[in-house]
Amino acid sequence: MSNALAIAGTSAVLYQILNNVFASTGFGSVTITALAPDIVQASQNSSPTLQVNLFLHQVTPNAGWRNVDLPSVSADGNSRLRNQPLALDLHYLLTAYGKENFEAEALLGFAVQALHQTPVLARSDIQAALNPPPSTGNSNLNGSLDLAGLADQVEMLKVTPATLGREEMAWLWTALKADYRPTFPFQVTVVLIQAEGPTNAPLPVATRNIAVKAGLLSSIGSVTPPPGKSAACLGDTVTVSGSGLSNAVGVTLSNAYLGVQFGPIVPSTVTNTSIQFVLPNIPVQGSPPSTPLPSGVYLLSVQVQPATTPASISSNSLPLAIAPRIISALPPSVTGASFTLNPTCSPAVLPRQQVSLIVGGEGVLAVPFQSNTNTPVFNFSNVAPGTYLVRLRVDGIDSPVSYTPAPGSPTIQVT
């Protein structure tokens, strides 16, 4: 890839190509420059000469390369894995200046023909043009353009004619504050600039020690909460079915969004085709202090310890939804269409979670809170009179309800 000098290096290569052309045309002394047109015009006004000027008027991102090699950092967003290339198209104006009739047109014709015959800048031409590079008048830059790396980038440099309408050309020359002269617009694509920052590089694999043994495959096919429930609550017994589970030693639960990695949970019952375990109602490492497993969807996997290997083997993962539960008695009735409910729930809800209380078919979001709470507040309005089932919904998971009168099915009457 090229470095930050690639733009200047591209102009230097074009400059050298034009110098070579006019060295053998018989025009005599033709000055090749790469300056802004207003600077050239000031020089021409004081001392008219035969001159061809190359002016870079715009730099745009290349559409084909701008999304290549994404992402360039690791999952933490900080560790650089590779140096992302900056892909650019360079837009030029080629302008000719003459002293007598037809001189500017002749100069422009030779210059345009040279670009037409050089649609691709060969690596050998780039190396020849930059070794040594043309003089820039800046001693610090003179010895650096050959280090731009243009000849080594993966993409070749291509010269393509461009089309600018009369209005675009007029606006452009007006902005340049210079008088219009015969001009040929073209672009060079694609210049790939790549930073040379440090990147993360993994160590090579020294040896490979792979063994295949029969009977070690363990997989799970279903995760089932207690009967009658679509999601498990803390303290419930969960059944995991699969194959090769006879040596299961633990169950792990993970929720990347909540930052929870819990386990192993020792199963209470183990067979070759199923295991059972109890969801613990204890504080979880990685969640805020004194908070049991928060409600949400977790990835569940089973850890199996085969008798023939010292290390445990993890099964595939399946989702398990952990539901909230309303543990306080709601007021048996409320009066009026507007009221506030403040139920106690388990486990506590986190500020980043979306929490709502559903009365019948109407749900409202909790009043915003800044820290973990077991008692979110909900403000209802315009509720019609009637008796309603009440559900607590956390991150899309509802607390368990029964549609027949039974303990654990909170209801409220609105009068």
Tell me what the structure shows:
This protein is an alpha+beta fold. The protein folds into three domains: 189 residues, no CATH class; 104 residues, Coagulation Factor XIII, Chain A, domain 1; 90 residues, Immunoglobulin-like (Sandwich). The chain contains six helices and 25 strands. The strands form six sheets. It has a six-stranded mixed β-sheet, sandwiched between helices. Strand 9 and strand 10 form a beta hairpin. The longest helix has 17 residues.
Strands in their spatial order, largest beta sheet:
1-2-3-6-5-4
Query: How many separate domains make up the residues?
Result: 3
Can you summarize the main beta sheet? 6 strands, mixed
**Helix percentage range:** 10-25%
Overall pLDDT level: 84
Strand content: 25-35%
Distance between the termini: 75 Å
Total helical elements: 6
Structural class, from helix and strand content? Answer: alpha+beta
- Enumerate the spans where pLDDT stays under 50 for 5 or more consecutive residues: 285-289
Supply Rg.
37 Å
Number of strands: 25
**Broad shape:** elongated
